[in-house]
Amino acid sequence: MARRVANVVARSRISSFYPLHKAIAAPKSGPWEQQLRHLNIHEYQGADLMSKYGVNVPKGAVVSSRKEISTVLEKEFPDNEELVVKSQILAGGRGLGTFKNGLKGGVHIVKRDKVEEIAGKMLGQILVTKQTGPEGKPVNKVFICEKLQLVNEMYFAIALDRASAGPVIIACSKGGTSIEDLAEKYPDMIIKVPINIHKGITDADAEKVVNGLNLKCADKNDSMQQVKHLYDLFCKSDCTLVEINPLAETADGKLVAADAKLNFDDNASFRQQEIFALRDQSQEDAREVAAAAADLNYIGLDGEIGCMVNGAGLAMATMDIIKLHGGSPANFLDVGGNASENQVIEAFKILTSDKKVKAILVNIFGGIMKCNVIASGIVNAAKTVSLKVPLIVRLEGTNVDLGKRILKESKMNLIAADDLDDAAEKAVAALA
Ligand code: GDP
Ligand code: MN
After folding, report:
1. What is the mean pLDDT, run by run of 10 residues, along the chain of 432 residues?
2. 3-state DSSP call for residue 218?
3. Which of 104, 129, 343, 356 has its CB 3.0 to 4.6 Å from that of 97, i.e. a possible disulfide?
4. pTM above 0.90, yes or no
5. What's phi and psi for 389, nearest 5 deg?
6. Is 94 assigned to a binding site?
7. 259 is in an annotated binding site
């Protein structure tokens, strides 16, 4: 349950359908996608998966070091004069991104004798795009692809749609650049085709999509087949998103998925083990990686008040009431109904190591979770991490007196609060 609510919170951060995103800290800018609890895989991994479903993808080979490149060129691309060198990060907008070392562009089309040089400048470097936030993402792998003659770039996606309660295919005859810009510039060119999950994709559905793409030269039937393969991949791999941008037409009349973003439902990890083994933690929010290791329900946000709460509902209420008092939460954190003292310590470490956190609000309603366990966890955590920000604590419920006594006897410097409202008010006041 808690995890499910956490997923909802995460999803609400990009969903315009879900009103909750207004209630919780909506960052003004930042790496929204990265905080979703949906597995995201690299382009080269996605290309491999798509080709297994019969989707046309450019021929490519991935390298993690400069010294592998000459062999790859010889073996995989003996006759290619030009190649596309693509940084592998779990964020879009690479083409228009900039490396912290000054190199412009995370995607380069180069002559074969320049591949080594340009890939060498990407590997091990940090790429900043409009989706990564200013901190950027490390490029640990580079995908070297054949250069295709792209005569037309389009947009294609399959997502889950609340309105039709099933998958919806979104297509646009213009693509390549960001869909946000396309949606603004050409709203009438975007078509949506909901698919009946029980019937599956019909010829009529596939035809609508292909018509919407307004193809210049690719064969219509082949293209409908490609759309069906993509739908097949979406369902069989438990995707939450398949986004191909650009879906391109090549000079020889083929439809090719030149770049793809694939997301997968975390709740399906048990039956998609091969896919979930592809998870790359080097691209994830470090706070969330640590929280997952301690089995905490945690989602990083961009505010200043670190929250430690038990129960997903109370955690949501805490975030709301912080907003109500003019503050913004730094995270969603539900330590769970029966967290161990160790988990509390880990949670506290994550909150205190977060530079954005300017105050910590602990809000515990002890039921199965006992207030004294939380109190001991906080006291013991404070022994190992130095607490530099104000700590506001509201305890209520099971063993509350014992919990309060533990905190008092520890002589920790904290601000006690009577209830949720009082706690939020004090936390916001403590920021000043
Ligand atoms: P993104 O910026 O992270 O979305 O990276 P993409 O993989 O989409 O690459 C950005 C752009 O590079 C695409 O929209 C294309 O215009 C171009 N591009 C990528 N591969 C090829 C290719 O094989 N041939 C040509 N001509 N252009 C390519
Ligand atoms: Mn792209």
Report:
1. 43 33 34 56 97 98 96 96 97 94 96 96 96 91 96 96 94 86 86 96 98 95 98 97 96 94 94 95 86 89 93 93 96 85 89 92 88 89 86 93 93 90 96 86
2. coil
3. 129
4. no
5. -120, 160
6. yes
7. yes
